[in-house]
């Protein structure tokens, strides 16, 4: 081994590695880090179940009268100021007759209700009620008239590739292809989709909260809803497509890591050359 070739070659290799990986990092920095469509090899998805008659069109009439009464009591304390007696609506809040269990559960479990200030877009915040109180209020609202029930969501039964297609066609225009949300004008925005639970995503699809359109049974069957929900959950942690897992810190930090590793290599090489004689 000649005295000079070793370190020079090594520095070159380190530099190439450093440049190579930061180059790869830079290639990922687009203005919109669109997640790539999921691989088409998701063959595990089961076909839509043949009989799914239980979840749709069943108004929760099963709720015991005692639950409904308890829900009404909670409602009278916090909701009638805006929604009126028997939830028939006032100029501060709409009638809740026929909005269904899906709407009440969605608005309460995402903390949108009770609203702090009338007239502002209802925002997601910490729920004001415990899950059991939400169930009571939901039973009361559902008892006012038939409406969409809480969807029976099963993301695992959804088809990721189908979910990607449906999401791209029906949701990405407002929520962005990465699910980051975006402004819609007139001080209305579509929120990011990284916090809603699978059940809340399915509820949003079925009820269309605020400025969002609703997608009923005639638009998406339950399997299609499961598929969209599966894709929305997938968006939060897309499968790594090769490369080192650096904790999903993003291209900038990945580039920094490559740069630091490369620089350390160069420093070590320089030191080695410097102390050689
Ligand atoms: C300060 C007034 C206010 C209070 C208090 C309030 N709401 Fe609302 N609520 C509104 C307004 C305004 C809307 C419509 C806004 C929207 O859809 O984003 C609404 C929408 C809703 C909806 C959705 C209706 C639909 O069309 O699907 C539900 C369900 C609801 N409220 C339940 C409740 C419950 C339950 C409470 C009590 C815990 C409550 N609200 C307290 C003002 C209020
Ligand atoms: C026209 C624009 C628009 C489209 C299309 C749209 N949304 Fe929305 N979405 C909204 C807006 C606006 C809100 C906030 C509603 C409110 O509370 O005022 C929202 C809220 C949501 C939420 C609640 C998020 C949270 O954390 O509380 C979910 C989940 C959601 N949308 C999912 C979807 C899915 C899935 C699709 C496609 C099937 C879709 N949206 C299509 C505008 C849209």
What report would you give on this structure?
With 277 residues, the chain is mainly α. The chain folds into three domains: 5-33 and 244-274; 37-55 and 154-237, Cytochrome c-like domain (Cytochrome Bc1 Complex, Chain D, domain 2); 62-150, Cytochrome c-like domain (Cytochrome Bc1 Complex, Chain D, domain 2). It is 46% helix and 3% strand. The protein contains ten helices and two strands; from the N terminus they run H-H-H-H-H-H-H-E-E-H-H-H. It has a two-stranded antiparallel ribbon with strand order 1-2. A hairpin with a 2-residue loop joins strand 1 and strand 2 (188-190). Helix 6 crosses helix 9 and helix 8 (198-207) packs across helix 9. The model is unreliable at 6-33, 41-59 and 240-245 (pLDDT under 50). The structure holds heme C (2 copies). Residues 110, 112, 121-122, 124, 170-171, 173-175, 184, 188, 190-191, 193, 195-196, 200-201, 204-205, 209-213, 215, 228, 232 line the site of one heme C (HEC).
Q: Would you state the CATH class of the largest domain?
A: Mainly Alpha
CATH superfamily of the largest domain: Cytochrome c-like domain
Number of domains: 3
Mean pLDDT: 80
């Amino acid at each position: 081994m000649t005295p000079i070739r070793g370190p020079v070659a090594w520095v070159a290799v380190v530099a190439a590695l450093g440049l190579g990986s930061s180059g790869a990092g830079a290639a990922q920095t687009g203005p919109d880090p669109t997640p790539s469509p999921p691989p088409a090899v998701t063959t595990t998805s089961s076909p839509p179940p043949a009989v799914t008659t239980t979840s749709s069109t069943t108004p929760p009439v099963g709720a015991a009268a005692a639950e409904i009464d308890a829900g009404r009591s909670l409602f009278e304390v916090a909701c009638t100021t805006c929604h009126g007696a028997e939830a028939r609506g006032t100029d501060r809040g709409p009638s809740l007759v026929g909005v269904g269990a899906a709407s009440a559960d969605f608005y309460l479990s995402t903390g949108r209700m009770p609203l702090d200030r009338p007239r502002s877009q209802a925002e997601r915040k910490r729920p004001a009620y415990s899950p059991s109180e939400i169930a009571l209020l939901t039973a009361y609202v559902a008892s006012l008239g038939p409406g969409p029930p809480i969807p029976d969501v099963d993301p695992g039964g959804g088809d990721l590739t189908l979910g990607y297609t449906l999401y791209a066609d029906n949701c990405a225009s407002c929520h962005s292809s990465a699910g980051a949300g975006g402004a819609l004008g007139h001080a209305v925005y579509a929120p990011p989709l990284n916090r809603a639970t699978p059940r809340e995503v399915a509820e949003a699809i079925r009820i269309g909260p605020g400025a969002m359109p609703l997608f009923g049974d005639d638009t998406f069957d339950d399997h299609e809803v499961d598929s969209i929900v599966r894709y929305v959950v997938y968006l939060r942690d897309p499968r790594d497509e090769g490369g080192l897992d650096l904790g999903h810190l993003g291209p900038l930090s990945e580039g920094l890591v490559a740069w630091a590793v490369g620089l350390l290599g160069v420093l070590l090489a320089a030191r080695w050359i410097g102390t050689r004689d």
